[in-house]
Protein: NAD(P)H-hydrate epimerase
Organism: Extremus antarcticus
Amino acid sequence: MDVHPDLLLPDRIPEMERHHSKPSQVLPFALYALCALSDEELAACRQQCVADIDCDDNIVQLAPKAVFKDQSLRIIVEYHVELGFGGQFDGKFFIVVVHPSSYTVLVVALDDDELQCKPDLLWSKIGKSGLVAANLGIGIIMWDEAKDHSMHKIYACTCNLDVTFNDFNLTSVMALRTLGPKAAAALDEELMSTGAFSIDQLMELAGLAVSQTMYALSPPSKSPNILVACGPGNNGGDGLVAARHLHYFGYKPTMYFPKQSKNELFGRLRTQLEQLKVPFTDDFVGTAKRSDWIIDAIFGFSFSGEVREPFPGVIKALAESKVPVLAVDAPSSWNIETGPPDDGPGKDYNPDALISLTAPKPLVKWFKGRHFVGGRFVGEDIAEKYGFDVPPYKGSDQTVEIGSQGEKL
Ligand SMILES: NC(=O)C1=CN([C@@H]2O[C@H](COP(=O)(O)OP(=O)(O)OC[C@H]3O[C@@H](n4cnc5c(N)ncnc54)[C@H](OP(=O)(O)O)[C@@H]3O)[C@@H](O)[C@H]2O)[C@@H](O)CC1
Ligand SMILES: [K+]
């Protein structure tokens, strides 16, 4: 079944002219669904839409006919044009749930700020949509401004109806906003200053997320032998932590850690592994051949320039590896902003899986494998401040799969 919703809008809606002379009034915003939702799910959607509005809970209400399963957005527009003249609902703006698993929705304007009867839409988080609609309706923000702050630029519509609305699963519907290298470093600083975290804590959670991702990709019963390649920075630290958890999960990790930082934290992480009799090897290529998976924890968001010794040979081996690779935060040697290098050992490197920590980095645009996000130590406020999204972790999971090949970020 083709589940891509038809979201095309007509060029103009001349009927909207009739609204131009009407005095502005705060009326409830109608909520529709372009997909199958039960009454409970619809009610939950409505609740989500009003969650951020600090006033009347009825500001978003279900339209008299709310569900337009497998129909086009145009049909809702036609219906709403008529409904809007009744004076019960705001005629100009309404909200549409497009996908049962989405926590993004559409805010639709039937007449943008230019009063030219031109419809337009923007993507919003479901929890913010009512507030966005209300602010637009009351005129606190203008349409262009709302669009600038919305998620419409980062929506990726690759629908998959295997998940239920209650999961609030992003996998199929949206791509998360990315975090550039400078912002990622600044966020790290902030977490460790005003955030009152220690680096040990962040690394422990990051490494735990890496190990859980490995488990999600292939459990130890299938892939016991994991080669963990660690670089000299914190990305390598995540790899050291992950290996410890992998050991406890039942894997047999082997470490490749050719350039150990003098920082005492790395010494402690190494000692913890040695006490568990986790082996360290100097032979990356030979060990890689005997491994079921490789974890690339060589460079993360602070990598820049051309790969220096002793890592070019390792990166080349990763690029040529027949053994699947899970990259931590970034495929090592990729530029964080501009992705794979034009030449050098990482030119053809595209790992099978990636776990982005805290938030995806811009390089994910070029990534083609399975994509996870982990590093569950940032709340909504910080995420908003740095302009990224907290992914919808489920339950106690430290990692969530968010997208796959071909998604537009
Ligand atoms: N909030 C979060 O999300 C958290 C993120 N965390 C993790 O931290 C990672 C960022 O860690 P980071 O800043 O320590 O740097 P990272 O990327 O490991 O690499 C820098 C090292 O690489 C080296 N190096 C650089 N360029 C090179 C080159 N061309 N060729 C050769 N070497 C090169 C350089 O070494 P140098 O050569 O200077 O000795 C430097 O030491 C991040 O991606 C995530 O995984 C968590 O642990 C905590 C919370
Ligand atoms: K990496």
Summary: Residues 152-174, 404-409 have pLDDT under 50 and may be disordered. The pocket of potassium ion (ligand 2) is lined by residues 235, 296-300, 327-330, 332 (CB under 6 Å).
